[in-house]
């Protein structure tokens, strides 16, 4: 079996991704916030719209499903220890994401 290389300069790609190889505290805090707040707001909107029409709830639930996938991705990243430098911080955030 032969390996297929992607066209392009790998050194250029390494320069692009090098800043994402180390955990960033600000990004590690911001990502769950900008995911959980809209997810919670969508749940509230679905609750309010359910009294009006389920046809309003369906598109909101699809959008909420996308945010739920994003919450899982954050949870998965915590399991790999890739959000925070501290293993304890990764465990705490991962646990909080798990119970949500």
How would you explain this protein's 3D organization?
- The protein has 100 residues and is an all-alpha fold.
- The protein has one domain.
- The protein has helices spanning 10-17, 25-50, 54-79, 87-99.
- It starts with 9 loop residues before the first helix and ends with a helix.
- The model has no long low-confidence stretch (mean pLDDT 88).
Number of separate helices: 4
Counted beta strands? 0
Structural class: mainly alpha
The helix content, as a percent range, equals: over 70%
The coarse overall form would be elongated
> Main sheet?
none
N-C termini distance:
44 Å
What share of residues are in beta strands? under 5%
Number of domains: 1
* Radius of gyration of CA atoms, rounded to a whole number: 19 Å
Uncertain ranges: none
Report mean pLDDT, rounded to a whole number: 88
Could you spell the SSE succession in H and E letters? HHHH
Structure summarized in a few sentences:
The protein has 100 residues and is mainly alpha-helical. It contains 4 helices and no strands.
């Amino acid at each position: 079996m032969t390996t297929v290389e992607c066209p392009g300069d790998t050194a250029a790609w390494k320069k692009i991704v090098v800043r994402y190889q180390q955990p960033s505290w600000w990004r590690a805090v911001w990502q769950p916030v900008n995911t959980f707040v809209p997810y919670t707001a969508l749940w509230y909107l679905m609750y309010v719209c359910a009294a009006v029409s389920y046809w309003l709830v369906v598109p909101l639930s699809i959008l909420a499903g996308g945010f739920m996938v994003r919450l899982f991705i954050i949870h998965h990243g915590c399991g790999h220890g890739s959000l925070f430098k501290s293993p304890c911080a990764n465990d705490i955030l991962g646990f909080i994401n798990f119970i949500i």
